[in-house]
Structures are given as structure tokens and as C-alpha cells.
Write a structure and sequence with these properties.
By secondary structure, the protein is an alpha/beta fold. The chain has 13 helices and twelve strands. The strands form three sheets. The protein has a six-stranded parallel beta sheet, with helices on both faces. Helix 10 crosses helix 12.
């Protein structure tokens, strides 16, 4: 993004809270402007370091990750010559508040003299937490959706994922990738498969859960061990071949029951040509065109999720049609190139305002 805005890499700086683990491997090897600065540190020494670094390098724009409305370092930055502070938010900023409390939050924001000039969010739902919860003016916010590698995540020949985990090729493979915390709804996925296999006699479906660390799967065993569904559920752990697994699976499912936004896994699944089944929650609902690239279902409703999986099991043509639509939508809206271009366009507009 920064390279879209300035031609000279020497004018681009990356500041990290600490560099104890060494040089970040995500930056080019020939990139040298890397510094340890903690903009959340309130100490006089660190605030002085921030001001000195900004002034000595002529920095005019700061792009800060998850930067709140108020930080002690904003003042020294402005004093040293920073003209624009842009905050990129990767998480919700607040709960949604009633009018009386929202009015107080708005007043609090206005009283912050050195607050960021603009806030970027990854979904409309996340933006709503800032506008309707934190009291930030909607005019000071924008949404730029996540992007992923459209070449890495793409449809592949069916069979790879089945072979890797010893899953019969006749089974429709539903895949989930994410954390195992309760709000991610892994228990809902499992309950839907107990419904499908044990109660409806569906032997031609299989659930693959990715992202569990060793032992985490045991927390769910009481839901399905000893049932017929046991042989239709696989915990695959952390993998470095997720793109191949997604590309050769049949459906993607995210059954969150608590807050969730526009997840990276949803983008990667859609690019892989998978129709998505997602909880009708906040930003998660923004990941699909309901009825076109997938379906939403009520959070926690395992039976409705089972109905949708059954629908795709019985309608392979629908699965192919929606998979193509999901891929097309994701390529148009959620490529890395689109994300970078949108960020650069937005930052340029904020700086020119």
C-alpha cells in the first residue's frame, strides 16, 4: 500500500512494539526502515523516542493498527509534524450503546484533540461498533474488505483432502478452519453432523475441522464419540496445505455463535470455489450473497445447518453453481490487489482532504 503512495522506499517506515524475535520476515530483505517504537507506552522516555523518530525522518502520515481514539503518543506525533493519523481496525471497537450513552461517547471523541483522522474497518459490522458504539463520526470511517491470493486459493481437482485424511471419496466434505474457542461454534458443526448421520441416516457426509491444537478436540468428544457420527468427523489440526484442502473440498461452514466479522477463512474458502454456510451474525453475514454464493442460518441452529448441508448433498449442480458464483464474487472483491488498491486510494484521499 505504501509503495503505491510513495515511489521511494526510504520514505516508508515500519515500527513494531518490540523486535525481540528479530527482523520481521514479512518485509523485503532490502527494506531497512524498521524500528522498535511502542506508541501505547505512556512513559516520558518512549514518548520522546516517538517524537524524535518522527521529526528526524520527516514522517507526515501514520498508519496505525488497532489504534484507539486516544493515545498519549498522538500529541508528540502531531508536534513532530504528523499531519494525518489513520487507524486500521482488525477488531470491533465497542459494543453498541443506547442513545444517551452514545451521546457521551461522541462528546468524548470530540474532546480528543489529537485523535486519528480516519478509521478503516474490515466489515460494515465492525464500522457500526465505532459509529454506534464508540461515537466516531461515520464520515471519519471507511470499510476495506480483506484480500487473499487468488492464485493460491483456487478450485482444485476433488480428492486431495479426502486422501490426506482417509475420507471416502463418496462423502460430501464440509470444511471449517479457525480457533476452537466456544464462540466459533465448532459444537454447532458437530451437532449438525450428529443430526445428519445419526438421526437422518446420511452416510455420505463428512466434517473436517482445521485449526485445533493437540488435545483441543477432546473438549468436543462428549458430543459425538460413541455415535454413528464419530466416523464422519475429523479434527485435522494446523496444516500448511490449507489451500489444497479448501480447493478440493465441497462446502465451507462457519457456525459462530458469538461476535464474528469478515473472516479471512471465509475469503479463502470462497476463492477456492466453495459455497459458504455461515451464521447470520455481524460481519460474517457479509461474506455471502444469501442464496447466490451460499446461505446464512440462525446462530446455534444445528438443525437448519443440517438442512442446508443436506440440500447441497442432494443437489451437486447447485453446489457447482454456487461455488462458481462464490469464486467470481471473491475474485472481484477480495483479491490482495483489490485490497491494496482500495487502501492506497483511501489513504491518498484522506491525506489530500
Amino acid at each position: 500500500m505504501a509503495q503505491h503512495l510513495v515511489e521511494d522506499d526510504t520514505k516508508i517506515h515500519f515500527a513494531y512494539r518490540n523486535l525481540e524475535r528479530g527482523r520481521p520476515d514479512t518485509l523485503p530483505e532490502n527494506f531497512h526502515n524498521i524500528v522498535s517504537l511502542d506508541i501505547r507506552d505512556r512513559s516520558r522516555v518512549e514518548l520522546g523516542r516517538v517524537e524524535s523518530y518522527v521529526r528526524s525522518h520527516g514522517i507526515r502520515t501514520v498508519f496505525a493498527f488497532d489504534a484507539p481514539v486516544a493515545l498519549p503518543s498522538y500529541g508528540p506525533m502531531r508536534k513532530a509534524g504528523v499531519q494525518r493519523i489513520i487507524s486500521y481496525q482488525g477488531a470491533p471497537m465497542s459494543s453498541i450503546f443506547p442513545r444517551w450513552k452514545l451521546a457521551l461517547k461522541k462528546l468524548e471523541v470530540r474532546l480528543q484533540r489529537h485523535r486519528p483522522d480516519h478509521y478503516i474497518f474490515e466489515s460494515e459490522a465492525m464500522r457500526a461498533t465505532a459509529v454506534e458504539g464508540r461515537g466516531i463520526s461515520r464520515d471519519d470511517t471507511s470499510v476495506v474488505y480483506l484480500g487473499a491470493d487468488t492464485n493460491r486459493f483456487a478450485p482444485r481437482a476433488r480428492g486431495y483432502a479426502h486422501a490426506q485424511f482417509g475420507i471416502p471419496g463418496s462423502r460430501l466434505l464440509v470444511v471449517f478452519s479457525g480457533h476452537m474457542e466456544p464462540r466459533k461454534g465448532v459444537h454447532v458443526l458437530i451437532e449438525s453432523f450428529v443430526e445428519l448421520v445419526d438421526r437422518r441416516g446420511r452416510e455420505n457426509v463428512h466434517l473436517l475441522v482445521l485449526g485445533n491444537q493437540p488435545g483441543q478436540e477432546r473438549a468436543f468428544e462428549n458430543l459425538y464419540v460413541g455415535s454413528k457420527a464419530e466416523g464422519h468427523i475429523t479434527f485435522g489440526g494446523y496444516r500448511n496445505d490449507v489451500a489444497d484442502i479448501f480447493g478440493s473440498a465441497d462446502l465451507g461452514a462457519i457456525a459462530s455463535t458469538g461476535w464474528d466479522s469478515f473472516t479471512m477463512s471465509s475469503v479463502e474458502m470462497a476463492l477456492s470455489g466453495l459455497p459458504l454456510l455461515v451464521s447470520n451474525l455481524q460481519g460474517l453475514a457479509e461474506t455471502v450473497d444469501d442464496g447466490v454464493t451460499g446461505y446464512t442460518f440462525p446462530p446455534g441452529d444445528a438443525r437448519r445447518l443440517a438442512d442446508l448441508i443436506e440440500l447441497f448433498t442432494d443437489n451437486p449442480n447447485l453446489r457447482c453453481k454456487m461455488g462458481r458464483a462464490a469464486r467470481r464474487r471473491a475474485v472481484e472483491r477480495h483479491s490482495v490487489e483489490t485490497q491494496v488498491a482500495e487502501l492506497a486510494k483511501l489513504v491518498r484521499a484522506v491525506c489530500a482532504d
